[in-house]
Write a structure and sequence with these properties.
Blueprint (H helix, E strand, L loop, with lengths): L4 H13 L4 E3 L5 H9 L5 E2 L2 H7 L9 H14 L4 E3 L9 H12 L5 E5 L10 H16 L6 E5 L10 H13 L4 E3 L6 H11 L4 E4 L9 H6 L4 E3 L3 H20 L11
Parallel strand pairs: 1-8, 2-3, 3-4, 4-5, 5-6, 6-7, 7-8
Helix pairs in contact: 2-4, 3-10, 5-6, 7-8
Length: 263
């Protein structure tokens, strides 16, 4: 591809500083990345779940080496800026987080995330979570291009619907130097609005594609969010179409699904 990593990084920074929110969809392979680029999106993000599904695994069952190679494949497939879902950076210790960010920066991506939960879903205590974000920030700043680091507060994805604690964590992550704040699973526009106000002027990423929480882009933007990602929703939608087609063939012996298939 003809666009340098530095050029992609600067474009990605500018998207976060722009006047409007943008959707950053999540391809799960090179083909889906190129399709989304062709549809006119301005940036892409990997999905740990979608990639794991493509390997026949559950989310969280991919190694760091596999995830980094996947980042490289997506970054090389497109001229768009690519951010990576790096889960909890594949380890509990701050030094592991820093090493993951350093390695991820060599794959061609221009942004990535660090979560405040272990691979089993247990939330790190506040101080340790902040230390991990600080280590990620230090590693990101050492890269030879502006790497947009997103710090994630995972409470709402793991049964801890504690908005006050989530905001305290996000504010601490912002103070530690994170570029983007992200609390996936917020259950209402009011919660999104409260989070965005609490961490302003830092840009906030909101997760769309959760059943029952599909707020329109315009309403998410009005609540103050800058970036909207989909996680594994696009991969699940594709798998849903595959399952529907399979059931039609198996149960009805018909092939009407081809009428809606991509050419």
């Amino acid at each position: 591809m003809s666009v340098s990593q530095s050029e992609k990084a600067k474009k990605f920074q500018a998207l976060h500083a722009g006047p409007k929110a943008f959707i950053i969809p999540n391809p799960w392979d090179a083909g889906s990345a190129r399709i989304l680029e062709g549809l006119g999106f301005e940036a892409l993000a990997t999905t740990s779940a979608g990639f794991a599904f493509s390997l026949g695994r559950r989310d969280g069952q991919v190694t760091r080496e596999e995830a980094l190679e996947h980042c490289r494949a997506i970054a090389e497939a497109s001229d768009l800026p690519v951010a990576a879902d790096l889960e909890n950076c594949f380890g509990d210790e701050s030094k592991t987080v820093a090493e993951t960010i350093r390695l991820a920066g060599s794959t061609g991506i221009v942004g990535g995330s660090v979560e405040d939960a272990r691979s089993d879903g247990k939330i790190y205590d506040h101080a340790h979570a902040v230390e991990r974000v600080a280590a990620a920030v230090e590693a990101a700043r050492a890269l030879p291009f502006p790497f947009m680091l997103a710090a994630r507060a995972e409470n709402f994805l793991h049964g801890r619907a504690d908005l006050d604690d989530t905001i305290r964590r996000l504010q601490a992550f912002a103070a530690a130097g994170a570029d983007v704040l992200y609390a996936p699973g917020l259950t209402s526009l009011e919660a999104i609005r409260t989070v965005c106000a609490a961490v302003a002027p830092k840009p906030v990423n909101v997760l769309a594609g959760i059943k029952g929480q599909n707020f329109p882009l315009a309403e998410i933007e009005a609540a103050g969010a800058r970036r909207i990602s989909l996680g594994g929703a696009l991969a699940r939608a594709a798998l849903g179409a595959l399952m529907s087609a399979g059931r039609e063939m198996k149960e009805k012996g018909t092939f009407a699904f081809v009428d809606e298939a991509a050419p």
